[in-house]
Structure formats: structure tokens, C-alpha cells
Amino acid sequence: MNAARLVKAQRLLEGLQGPSTEMIELREQLLDELNHRLKNNLQMLYSVLEIASRKTDNSEAREVLLDTSRRIGAMGTAQQVFYSARHSTDVSGQTFLEAVCANARIFFTGEVSITYEATTGTLPKETAVPLALALNELLTNSVKHGADDRGQVIINVRLSLRSGSHELYVQDCGPGFNLEEAQRRSSGLGLVTILAKRLKGTFTVERRSGARCTLIFPDQ
Q: How far apart are CA 35 and CA 10, in angstroms?
């Protein structure tokens, strides 16, 4: 659907009354077009960042560009999961974890193992993007700082629903860390704290045979 057709569909939609078949079809067309455009824009931005990271000789700049690419990838993944559940107000918790972990895994090299499990059935759609960004940051932090004595990174991810709140935890097998100290060296963990507030939740870190990062937020 080009721009002219999109405007025409919007005008027709505004003129329709009631849940007619034609109105539903037009809504689907608009959603398809918006999803397609967003997907293309994210892919274009991702490609620009990837090219820039390959061309720069500055290691710090390359790391920033790669981190940004990972975040764009996480947002795109969440958007796809969100759109795939177009006829529902919720998204599958297991599908969400699988998609975000798979996207993050593309960027990791070396001995990295990620296992994940969702015991909660679904997540509210509005949590998909901020939660995907938070999970991406926690996975990235574990890969950077959570290796064991042999240099292997083993990450366990679990999403569950308890007493009306969703709990996401990411645990690695590294030495663990203090959140306040880590936030001074990692903008990613600061971002997780901000995202937790956006979700009206809390973010904590414990040492449990490694670092265990937990994000708890209400079932909105």
C-alpha cells in the first residue's frame, strides 16, 4: 500500500460506522502498512549502524554502535511479536523470550549458552518493547561480565507470574556485582532501571552463584 492508498484507506475508515466487514478489512490494511513501514525503518537504521561499526577504527565507538544495534534489534523483535498477536491484547511469554534471546544471541561470540523458560502464559502487549530492551541489556551485561573461571557464559532466563506481578530474572555464572557500582560503568544497567520505572516495577541484583538480575512489574 503506497502513501496515497494509505490516506484513502484512512479517509474511508473515518467515514464508516459500526464494526462492518469493510471497516475491519481497512483496519487490517492500515495495520499491515504501519507494521511494514516500521519494520523497514528499523532495518534501515540497523544497517546504517552496522556499516558504521565496521568502518570505525575506534574501539569505544564500535562498542557503542554495536550496543545501539542490539537495542534496535530488540525493539524490532518486540514489534514483530507484538504484531503477530494482532487479534489479542496479550503476547505469548514463551514466544517473547524465544524471539528476544535469539536476536541477542546473534551478536554474541564465544562460549555463550542461553536457556529460557516462561511459566506465565501471556504478557500485556504494552510491556513488549520496554521488556525486550531490558532483557537485551541484561543478556548483554551477562555476556560481558558473567563468564565463569573457564571463560564460559551460561545464562538462565525465566519469566513467571506471581500474585499479580510478572517476574523476569536473568542469572549468569560469573562473580556477581553491586548494582550501584555497576551502574556507574554501564549505561545499559541504568537503562534497565529506567525501564523498570516505566513498567511501574522494580529492578534488583543479587549474588546467587553469579549475578541474578530480577525485574518485577505488575500485570497491567
A: 15
* Side-chain-facing half-sphere of 2: CA atoms under 13 Å: 1
- The H or E element that residue 1 is part of is none
3-state secondary structure of 168: strand
> Residue 52 — very low, low, confident or very high, per pLDDT cuts 50/70/90?
confident
Per-residue pLDDT averaged across 106-114, rounded? 84
CB atoms within 10 A of CB 48: 13
Q: Could you tell me the CA-to-CA distances from 170 to 79, 95, 140 in Å, in that order?
A: 22, 17, 11
**What residues does 191 pair with on adjacent strands?**
none
**Does 205 have pLDDT greater than 80?**
yes
pLDDT of 1 reads 47
How many C-beta neighbours within 10 Å does residue 128 have? 24
Angle CA(168)–CA(174)–CA(175) in degrees, nearest 5?
110
**Under 8 Å CB-to-CB from 9, ≥6 apart: which residues?**
1, 26, 29, 30, 33
Q: Which residue is it, cell 505469548?
A: 92
pLDDT bucket at 178, cuts 50 / 70 / 90: confident
According to DSSP, the β-strands at 165-171 and 153-162 are antiparallel
pLDDT > 90 in the chain, percent: 31
Q: Tell me how far apart the alpha carbons of residues 92 and 141 are, in angstroms, rounded to a whole number.
A: 25
**pLDDT higher for 25 or 139?**
139
Cβ count near 97 (within 10 Å)? 24
